Amino acid sequence: MAFPLSYCTDGYVVLERLRRLYVQRDMSIVLAAMDIPSAAKQEMAHRHPTGFCEYPDPVERALYWDAYLRERVGIHDDSIPCGYLSEMDQGLYGGLVGGTARFLSDPEMGWISSMVEPILKDWDEFDNLKPFDPKDMTNGWLRRYLHQIEVFKQVSQGKWGISHFILIDGLNFGFELMGATETYLALVERPDVIRRVIDYAFDLNVKVQSLFFEHVPLVEGGTCSNFAQWLPGRVVSESVDPFHMTSIDHFETWGREPVERILSVFDGGVIHIHGNGRHLLPAVATVKGLRALLLADDRGYPLAFDILPEARKQVGDMPLIIAGVEYPRFLEALNAHQLTGGVFYNVTNVPDADTANRCMELVRAYQA
After folding, report:
1. What is the spatial distance between Cα 173 and Cα 339, in angstroms, rounded to a whole number?
2. Which of 143, 156, 163 has the alpha carbon at shortest distance from 213?
3. Residues 10 and 79: beta-carbon distance below 8 Å
4. pTM
């Protein structure tokens, strides 16, 4: 039987390996995705140089993902080909309730992302926000969201999947309303408002993500993921970024319950942790419904690859994903049998497909 995505020639083999990591939590296995030079990204850089831009043509964006993922067909790694609705990350949520969005091109990632200007001038305006109505087709951002999904479905059909995209709930939505500083201050000065913001954001995010799963079919019963590749069920992508600059106590007071509440609506979720949030690892790893943790790299902090043994001790058997490790360093650790198990490694700057495939033969034989 052919795998439903033609750009993934080893699809059923890959799904079995992903299940071993995310479902069985097999700590002896290592998985990897190999990033090779991309002509599609070079073309995107020509069309959309780094910097602010307008909302792009969704057909062009879908064709970008098609070209990028088609380049990778001959790579037999552990990835599941999927496009990402980066234009909805993060401005969709604020845009749906009247915010003004700005778009930013990042050709290195292959993204055009979005954010909103602060929506409110004062917290007293918050109660004037009407609940988001997912059936109100006069809402321009709702039409944009659903149209882009349909365009991606048409272009991707039978070839590649559509990834889930980030939630903007909890304090993240407070940031969209009033900015980060005012949101942190309100935790102390106006906690009653923040509680209402969290409830409003929960309702908004559940509606947005429910629309996604209503319109985007699962692949072999699972969700395509830009972070985790694929996970069984309807799985969301959560963010605890606001707590990266707070204590663990603040996360326990303001973060855990909202995260666990929304993960329970779906079949769990994945969370990413930036360099300045690694103190949260032991706490976040115990979130109910968490399926995997991605460790990101940020300037001024040790590479996630270098702190993996310590991170493993902190999170137990939680599956980990490394956002990026340079090919020479990965190969050196692979050959020296020094890779931490139970980890999905995104390997960057691999010279070509042949090199990637030779490396993957070693990866699939590896036992931690």
Report:
1. 37
2. 163
3. no
4. 0.98
